[in-house]
Write a structure and sequence with these properties.
It contains eight helices and eight strands; from the N terminus they run ααββββαβαααβααββ. With 206 residues, it is α+β, with helices and mostly antiparallel strands.
Length: 206
């Protein structure tokens, strides 16, 4: 099963090497797989599920940077591994996940032995860069209510179009880099406008 997922993104030879070298683990929603200010011991490749990558600022505020889905890896972890640096982001499980962890000592070897591995790193770097540009543009030019609705739609897309999203106001506030009070007020207004329906730790998009 795992080799089939990898074959969608890598050659059979590299897929087999990744499986041989790495360790597969399963995680539940909310678990942390990438810790800030820690040296990464392994680089994750997502086989199943979804991971949200978050940045925490010095004042404690957090903001969602991007999501990782099957076939993705965290380019920040990749670069930290290559440069022996600490992580600047935190990775949390958004949706129950199965992850292949590649020990960091193998990352440089793969770059040397598998040209497609370098292509893979560059492709995810490009993808993440575009997502970060989109996030910066959103923070700079869009109102919080617009960003909140965009975030809910992203979460729905992660759940393959599921309209009912299990999430707390506190979590949404953290991912947007704002306060829970602001998020709750905006959600109440969205409910009044029939954009969403609110439940206990649940929001349904209409």
């Amino acid at each position: 099963m795992e080799i089939e997922v990898l074959n969608n993104f890598f050659s059979k030879r590299l897929s087999e090497e990744l499986i041989k070298t790495g360790v597969i683990k399963e995680f539940n929603e909310g678990e942390v797989i990438i810790q800030e200010d820690k040296y990464p011991k392994a680089v994750p490749i997502i086989l199943e599920g979804t991971i949200r990558v978050i940045r925490t600022e010095d004042d404690g505020n957090e903001i969602l940077l991007y999501y990782l889905r099957p076939g993705d890896s965290c380019v920040m972890s990749m670069l930290d591994a290559l440069h022996n640096d600490t992580s600047k982001v935190r990775g949390e499980i958004e949706e129950k996940a199965k992850i292949l962890f590649i020990p960091v000592e193998n990352i440089s070897r793969f770059v040397r032995d598998f040209p497609e591995w370098l292509d893979y790193i560059l492709s995810i770097y490009h993808k993440r860069f575009e997502e970060l540009l989109e996030m910066v543009q959103s923070v700079a030019f869009k109102k919080v209510d617009e960003r909140l609705l965009e975030l809910l739609k992203k979460k729905s897309a992660v759940l393959k179009g599921e309209k009912s999203i299990n999430v707390t106001h506190e979590q949404l506030a953290r991912e947007l880099g704002t306060s829970r009070v602001v998020v709750s007020r905006l959600l109440k207004e969205m409910e009044r406008q029939n954009i969403v329906r609110l439940g206990r730790n649940n929001i349904t998009l209409n």
